[in-house]
Design brief:
Largest sheet: none
Radius of gyration: 24 Å
Helix content: 40-55%
Order of helices and strands: HHHHHHHHHHHHHH
Number of strands: 0
Structural class: mainly alpha
Length: about 290
């Protein structure tokens, strides 16, 4: 690792960016540098503008990819190199709003039943039952991979780290057979080589289960997370509680689920219904 890359990584870690964001930012800046064939330290706003235009017009990347790249380059120049305001004139486009894919409760049941093995079913069940991100299944923010104790229904002391992690222990009740054998395991969800699973392996398991289930919807681990939140909302759980369970920093992110919870909206009665108990005078025909 070059000294410059290490410095940027240190800056990201000092600001408590998630491991996923650290990796995405480092990779984005590395791709930018490779495109021009020189150190990014020697490049500036004009090269950034050219590169972003290339991403939009030729590579036709998603706007989310564009924004991640721009955020990574801004962090690199402003924080790591200290060139404040260097990229302020480059716009950050608004991404088109897309509602997340959400499974019904029946579809969740069908999906989980299609998991090929107990370990796969347990892993996906816990993803739904606690609304986990794929990175949280294999490794919390602290970098420690999921240990069997993370799923202990009665863990000593505090539960897993993060505002929602107590739900993980509750979800463990869905897999007593797996947890009964945990004493011989170092990790709750090990790979075939007894190493912790990667996020790619978890996503592959999810895709295979979706194919086996016969569901037409595109089901990912994040789909299970969206379904978890939507089903809580439909059950009457308030948005603030859901925000804490999901670990959202912004309330706006959680508010997205009000747009997909059609069941709850349909069940809301009009205030006019309350007027049925009030005597309405006969129509004046004069």
């Amino acid at each position: 690792m070059t000294e410059l890359r290490q410095r940027m990584l240190d800056d990201l870690q000092l600001r408590n960016f998630s491991p996923h964001t650290q990796s995405a930012y480092i990779s984005a800046v590395a791709r930018f540098a490779r495109h021009f064939g020189v150190s990014p330290e020697r490049l500036g706003p004009e090269e950034v503008r050219q590169y972003l235009l290339l991403m939009v017009h030729q590579r036709r990347v998603a706007w989310s990819t564009y924004n991640i790249t721009l955020c990574a380059l801004r962090f690199f120049y402003q924080t790591t190199l200290g060139r404040t305001g260097l990229l302020d004139g480059i716009p950050c486009p608004k991404e088109p709003k897309r509602l997340p894919v959400v499974l019904s409760r029946e579809e969740v049941t069908t999906f989980l039943a299609a998991a090929p093995r107990l370990k796969s079913r347990t892993m996906l069940t816990m993803a739904y039952a606690a609304g986990l991100r794929v990175s949280e299944i294999v490794s919390p923010r602290s970098g420690r991979h999921r240990q069997p104790a993370d799923a202990d229904p009665h863990p000593p002391g505090q539960g897993p780290e993060g505002p929602q992690r107590h739900a993980l222990a509750q979800a463990a009740g869905t897999a007593p057979d797996l947890l009964a054998t945990r004493t011989a395991r170092r990790f709750l969800f090990p790979s075939q080589t007894e190493k912790p699973l990667s996020t790619g392996q978890v996503m592959l398991t999810c895709r295979r289960t979706r194919r086996r289930s016969g569901l037409k919807k595109d089901v990912t681990v994040h789909t299970l997370r969206h379904s978890f939140a939507t089903h809580l909302l439909e059950a009457g759980v308030d948005l603030r509680t859901i925000q804490v369970l999901l670990g959202h920093r912004s309330f706006k992110t959680t508010a997205l689920y009000t747009a997909v919870s059609t069941e709850r909206i349909a069940s809301i009665a009009s205030p006019f219904d309350a007027l049925a108990t009030i005597a309405v005078p006969p129509h004046d025909r004069s």
